[in-house]
């Protein structure tokens, strides 16, 4: 069987076949429970017993073993692609709502980068499909609920709120990039050598660069705004006088 830390099993009581899957949702829950009880978890086993689809329907069972790695790469790429898509949407919106000229240029640049990465990942995904014509229709292997819609999806929604200012746009971006970086690094490091692992680690690195850039730019924005403030203060009374 394909080796990677903490995978879980579906076990069929009729044919005794077992099917592997990964789930960050289960892992997170296990960690939360252990931490809440002051417990250092060394190993956790999740086994779901029942009747498999093949036995239930009489259809041929999905191949195991050699395709696990392909399934893993497929699902890792899907998550990365969803994240790029949501990232592209996020930065496109951020560029639209930002008033600061430099900020707008930065968000445009990040949107361009995400678009470029998206193209690369989609090509890679197509290449992967060539290795197995049925790959797209095979069952899900990696269950990552929070990441399935892309890690920037919530941030992109938050940008649509009334009266979002430039600082807030940066802060949301920083939060998304940090979450994305952590997610891909954390899971990338856990996997055995495979294309899925590669995808995750490369992605973690890209997100780290984006994160650092956003933090730098956020600080630069604060400095620019601080410099502008004295002028704004003296301008306000003048305007009030003028309107009277
Ligand atoms: Zn079965
Ligand atoms: Zn990014």
List keywords for this structure.
single chain, 244 residues, alpha/beta, Dna Ligase, domain 1, Ferritin, 67% helix, elongated, binds zinc ion
Strand content: 5-15%
* Molecules bound to protein: zinc ion
Average pLDDT number: 85
Tell me the distance between the termini: 80 Å
Q: Helix fraction?
A: 55-70%
CATH architect. name of the largest domain: Up-down Bundle
Q: In order across it, which strands form the biggest sheet?
A: 3-1-2-4
In DSSP terms (H or I, runs of 4 or more residues), the helix count works out at 8
Main structural class? alpha/beta
Major beta-sheet overview: 4 strands, mixed
The stretches of 5 or more residues where confidence is low (pLDDT under 50) are 234-244
By CATH, the superfamily of the largest domain comes out as Ferritin, core subunit, four-helix bundle
Task: Describe it.
This protein is α/β, with parallel strands linked by helices. The chain folds into 2 domains: 8-57, 2-Layer Sandwich (Dna Ligase, domain 1), CATH 3.30.1490; 66-230, Up-down Bundle (Ferritin). Helix content is 67%, strand content 7%. The chain has 8 helices and 4 strands. A 4-stranded mixed sheet has the order 3-1-2-4. Helix 3 runs antiparallel to helix 4 and helix 3 (66-97) runs parallel beside helix 8 (195-243). The radius of gyration is 23 Å and the shape is elongated. It starts with 7 loop residues before the first strand and ends with a helix. The site of one zinc ion (ZN) has 7 residues, from helix 2.
């Amino acid at each position: 069987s394909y080796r990677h830390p903490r995978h879980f099993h579906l076990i069929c009581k009729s044919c005794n076949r077992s099917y592997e899957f990964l789930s960050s949702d289960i892992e997170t829950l296990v960690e939360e429970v252990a931490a809440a009880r002051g417990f250092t978890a060394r190993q956790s086993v999740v086994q779901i017993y029942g009747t498999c689809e093949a036995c239930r329907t009489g259809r041929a069972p999905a191949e195991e073993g050699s395709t696990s790695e392909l399934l893993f790469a497929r699902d890792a790429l899907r998550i990365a692609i969803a994240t790029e898509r949501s990232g592209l949407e996020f930065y496109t919106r951020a560029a639209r709502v930002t008033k600061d000229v430099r900020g707008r240029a930065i968000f445009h640049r990040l949107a361009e980068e995400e678009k470029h990465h998206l193209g690369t990942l989609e090509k890679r995904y197509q290449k992967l499909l060539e290795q197995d014509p049925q790959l797209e229709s095979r069952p899900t292997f990696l269950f990552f609920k929070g990441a399935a819609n892309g890690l920037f999806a919530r941030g992109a929604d938050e940008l649509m709120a009334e009266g979002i200012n430039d600082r807030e746009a940066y802060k949301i971006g920083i939060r998304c990039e940090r979450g994305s970086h952590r997610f891909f690094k954390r899971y990338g490091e856990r996997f055995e050598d495979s294309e899925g692992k590669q995808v995750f680690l490369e992605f973690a690195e890209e997100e780290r660069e984006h994160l650092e850039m956003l933090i730098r730019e956020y600080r630069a924005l604060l400095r620019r705004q601080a410099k502008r403030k004295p002028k704004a203060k003296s301008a306000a009374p003048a305007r009030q006088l003028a309107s009277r």
